[in-house]
Amino acid sequence: MNIKSLPKKIGNDLKADANAIFHALDIASDGSLSLIKESIVKSYQGFLDAKFNNLILDMANNNIKTDELLNFINSSSHSDREFMSSLIIKNLHADNCITIFILAKLWENKIKNGSLNYYESSLFTNINTFTHEDFEIYYYAIQHMIQPEKTNMAPYILVPLENEYYILAMNKFCSFGILQTAYTADGSYYKEENKIYIFFFKTPYSDTLYQILDEYFKNTPPS
To answer: Are 111 and 72 in contact (CB under 8 A)?
Structure first.
């Protein structure tokens, strides 16, 4: 036996075993397993198609020409193929439309610039860790950032005590380099009566992400 064919044969054997196990379980469940599988395919295939279509539509809105898009998709560059593979996976895992919108912006920059900068790469790598609410909090934070009169104080946002989860969202953006944590004598935040002060600095990419979110929120009708 040619050793080159061994992995393929092992893979085929495992696939056959998996199919046999599936059929055995299906028989044991009186066909319920097949019904579940068919329902998942029927219910979600259209949804997955729609997510990818939204990505392409967002790219079209970025004024990317069809030939530019096709050239990138058909690129033989290892970097482009790796990016495209990751993009498809991240798009499928996206649980909100903002993520898909940002992915399209990052894809546009990859096509036009040949690579992503440090901040774009960090955002691309970690984008599926952000929720819709995280992006809303970020958008709010940049809009309501307070510059203190005293030069020895860091900028901050002021939120009601019940919005303590803002701290978690802001820390997330800081941990990925999109914002920078500001430490004061009381720490990166402190609570006062019914208010929370959250301190942070902007990075060179902070306004860029804000502009992307501003474009999204201004052109997306409220749900």
So the answer is: yes
